[in-house]
Structure formats: C-alpha cells, structure tokens
Amino acid sequence: MATTRLAQTSDLDALRTLDPWPSEKAWNRLIGNGEAMVLEVDGKVVGMLHFAVLWATVPFLCQIEIAEDHRGKGYSRQMIGALADHLRDEGYVALLSSSQTDEPEPQAWHVHLGFTSNGILENIEDEGIGEVVFRLLLTDD
InterPro entries in the record, alphabetically (predicted)? Predict the structure, then answer.
C-alpha cells in the first residue's frame, strides 16, 4: 500500500537519493516549511515532491520524482492528489508547475494530471529554451 505524507528530517537520505540537487540545508528548509512530501510503499520512501510558495500566495511544484522501479503505477497522480488536498486545506486555489518547451513528455504528464497550459516564458535558459507554465485549479469552480 502506498501512502503520501509531509517529509520529515528522518527522510533526508531518501530525499537526497531521489533528488540530489538541493543541498542538505535546502532540504531541511523545505521540510521545516512543510514544502516537501514523500510517497512510501511498504514502509520505504520511493517518491518525493517539493514545492515553493511564490509571492506568499501561489504554490509552485518544483520537482516530483518516483523511483524508476515504481513508475507507471499511478503514484505521481496520488502524490499530486495529496499535495492538492494539503494546499486546499491551507487555503490555496491553484498549483503552478512548468516544464521546458523542448520536453514533450513532462508536458503530456501535466495535461494527463489535469493541469492546463498557462503560457510560455521565453528564453528562460541561455540556450534559448523556454518554460511552459501549467496551472491546476484546486477548487471546483
């Protein structure tokens, strides 16, 4: 059985295995702010996500990662659902996310999970690659 919960400092090793990019200090900040979640299967952390709150009002999904041997089982949908519930409880009305303009698979993933395209930020990287911004409404409106 898979469960999703807010990350704890005891999850730090698993988090850094799934996403080594953030420093330990950054992970501790994310955990302390309640901006990281984990997915456990049979007591083992096999997925994680972290988000940031922009302008103190808009949550933005920064990263979601599922261990390779656990992909294709609906766990990312479960994690996004748990995050959406958490954000609703906190009073937020939408979740933003993005993917690079040259990455069709992540774009399809967003659409598959109910996100809608909200525009493109042009040339966000030096290589001329932009970001497609996605929005998931957290209300029934």
Answer: Acyl_CoA_acyltransferase, GNAT_dom
> How many structural domains is the chain composed of?
1
Q: Is residue 81 part of a domain?
A: yes
Whether residue 127 lies inside any domain: the answer is: no
pLDDT in tens, 84-132: 999 999 999 999 999 999 999 999 999 999 999 999 988 776 678 899 9
Residue type at 61 in one-letter notation: L
Per the structure, the complete domain to which residue 22 belongs is given by 1-50+74-91
Q: Give pTM, 2 decimals.
A: 0.92
47 in Cβ contact with 76 (< 8 Å): yes
Of all helices (H) and strands (E), which one includes residue 31?
helix 24-32
Q: Is residue 83 part of a domain?
A: yes
* Interatomic CA distance for residues 119 and 64, integer angstroms: 21
Query: What is the side-by-side order of every strand in the sheet holding 44-54?
Result: 2-6, 36-41, 44-54, 58-66, 94-100, 131-137, 116-121
Phi, psi (deg, nearest 5) at residue 137: -70, 140
47 token code pair: 């997925």
Residue 127 has what pLDDT? 77
